[in-house]
Design goal:
Elements (H helix, E strand, L loop, with lengths): L1 E8 L3 E8 L4 E5 L4 E4 L2 E3 L6 E3 L2 E3 L2 H8 L1 E6 L4 E6 L9 E3 L15 H12 L3 E9 L9 E15 L2 E6 L1 H4 L4 E5 L5 E10 L4 E7 L22 E6 L9 E18 L2 E10 L11 E3 L5 E8 L9 E5 H14 L5
GO biological process, one term: proteolysis
GO molecular function: serine-type endopeptidase activity
Organism: Desulfuribacillus stibiiarsenatis
């Protein structure tokens, strides 16, 4: 009898251990996405993932094979582990790809480390965006002041110009737009165009002005699954909290929010996440566990008694909008 440990993420990282015997073999075959139990294929809902040389296995899939039920209790924010009566002679060890003998280390869903790696990969692709507008005062009405701020994502580099994506509402009515770099330096940005319906705006800056930044790695928002980790990076409450990181899960995909423009009612597809998105996060990056850009953070429901509901524009939906703005200066519908 020996212990096999599992890591599990639900807002925090924790480990659980269960006692099993040691003759049965579980093998994750990444090539054809199979989970084998003593050489026999086992039906699973999810597939193993190889990332940064480490194999990630769905906790629930493995726990089912070991004879344990794992449930998350929302009311108490706790995890319940229940032992199911095991079949006589069920003995389990873990064999990872490339090993000819049982694994020396436990199977561990190391989401905590993966989040750190994802943030390191993506954080310098997120910048601050400052909206400057005239004060309107009697003495110097044209003097500019900061009317609001948000975040932006470095999307693409073309010759000596770099494209930054943010939200329409972040730059709306701006007379001048500044981009704040991770170094704290501010540079002037030019608005190429924006789209009120999808709340997207496209800026450009001179590439040689950028310091300490990287391009975002574009992901695939169509491949998102409910419950997978999500990471938000932005500047909540202004530049003093620049590049703040929050993490949660994908709460829902293909959500539709009502938008009213000039009296006409529309619906816009968004990603729902419980990663904290606060004022100033707008225009920032929503990332998957690999540090890839899957959405542009756009809005947060702020009502009494409503917490943990944030939204992002799926990157797959944003890309044709961005392309139209880059080509025509506006969206062609």
């Amino acid at each position: 009898m020996r212990k096999v440990s599992f890591g599990f993420i639900l807002g925090i990282v924790l480990s659980i251990s269960v006692n099993v015997q040691a003759n049965t073999e579980i093998m994750a075959r990444l090539a054809d996405f199979k989970l084998l139990l003593n050489g026999n294929s086992v039906q699973v809902e999810n597939t193993p993932l190889l990332y940064n040389g480490r194999t990630y296995l769905p906790v629930r899939e493995i726990s089912n094979i070991l004879g344990y039920d794992i449930d998350y209790i929302e009311a108490t924010k706790s995890i319940m582990i229940q032992d199911r009566p095991a079949q006589q002679g069920t003995n389990t060890t873990v064999l990872l790809p490339g090993q000819s003998s049982p694994a020396q280390a436990p199977v561990y869903l190391d989401v905590h480390s993966a989040i750190i790696e994802a943030v390191d990969k993506a954080k310098h692709s997120v910048v601050g965006v400052v909206n400057m507008q005239p004060t309107g005062g009697r003495i110097n009405p044209n003097e500019l002041r900061e009317a609001g701020s948000g975040s932006g994502v470095i999307y693409r580099a073309e010759d000596n110009r770099t494209i930054i994506i943010t939200n329409h509402h972040v730059i709306e009515r701006a007379s001048r737009i500044y981009v704040t770099l991770p170094t704290g330096e501010q540079i002037i940005a030019r608005l190429i165009g924006s789209d009120q319906l999808t709340d997207l705006a496209v800026l450009e800056v001179t590439s040689s002005d950028l310091k300490g930044t990287t391009l975002a790695v574009i992901g695939n928002s169509a491949a998102l699954r409910q419950g997978e980790p999500a990471i938000a990076i932005g500047n909540p409450l202004g530049q003093r909290l620049a590049q703040t990181v929050t993490a949660g899960i994908i709460s829902g995909t293909q959500r539709f929010l009502p938008v009213t423009i000039n009296g006409a009612r529309h619906e816009v597809e968004v990603i729902q996440t419980d990663a904290a998105i606060n004022p100033g996060n707008s225009g920032g990056a929503l990332l998957n566990i690999r540090g890839e850009l899957i959405g542009i953070n756009s809005a947060k429901i702020a009502m009494t008694g409503v917490e943990g509901i944030g939204f992002a524009i799926p990157i797959n939906k944003a890309q044709p909008i961005i392309s139209d703005i880059l080509t025509h200066g506006r969206v062609i519908r």
